[in-house]
Amino acid sequence: MDDQQKPQVIRRATALLRALAAAEPTGATTSELASATGLARPTVHRLLTTLADEGLADRDHRSGRWSIGPELYLLGSLAASRYDIVDIARPVLRDLARTTGESTFLSVRRGDETVCVAAEEGSFPLRSHVLHIGIRLPLGVASAGLVILAHLAPHDVADYLDRVDLTREWGERHARDAVTERLVRTRETGYSLNPGLLVEGSWGMGAAVFDDRDEPAWALSVTGVESRFGVDRRSHLGELLLLEAHRLTRALRQRHPVGDT
């Protein structure tokens, strides 16, 4: 394998690992993983076999379905002390859910995407089911991705919008001009609003959580049905989100759990 091929192999293997993670807990067949990654089935089988040899993938020989391997658990446990903030954030999610009645979520930025890593159900009986733990969405899509993108440096935002076409998967409401307009509003208020752009009637709002370099590394969000996001209440929810996001930012910089309020 020459030097030019090596990065491509790594990208393909990474895409497979992400597809495996998205297929948990049931796993996926080789064909399903090929479809999810856009790779040829023989290529997927060859990569999966190599990943399994290294403990990064596992196969149920009765069903033929693949899942993430035990080595990923070991690697993840070592990285958890540095990257896992769920335990610290859990009280914030609970407080937001209890105060608002809406479902609350914590998402983390991973490159050009956000990944939902924690959730807390609200008490209101009608819920939005767009977000769930493990879902990956591009920056600029949904409230978490929008608020993180809005708080990046202007040149990073421009670079991202230059190389990513969100309309291919998310439609014209995610055209560059429309996203830019929402970014402007997000910077003005400090929090983002997703007015049913992914699923009609399912609304969400988000606030950025910053790391010790003042980079927007995570986002808190609340989601619910449209009737729960009237103009007056949006302002109130936005203020709550910003307060709790600031609370979590402070706790993360000190690296200790947030006390329940």
TrEMBL record:
It comes from the Bacteria. Residues 71-254 form the IclR-ED domain. It comes from Nocardia aurea. The keyword RNA-binding does not apply. Residues 7-70 form the HTH iclR-type domain. Gene3D superfamilies: 3.30.450.40, Winged helix-like DNA-binding domain superfamily/Winged helix DNA-binding domain. Keywords: DNA-binding, Transcription, Transcription regulation. Pfam families: HTH_IclR, IclR_C. This is IclR family transcriptional regulator. InterPro entries: GAF-like_dom_sf, HTH_MetabolicPath_Reg, Tscrpt_reg_IclR_C, Tscrpt_reg_IclR_N, WH-like_DNA-bd_sf, WH_DNA-bd_sf.
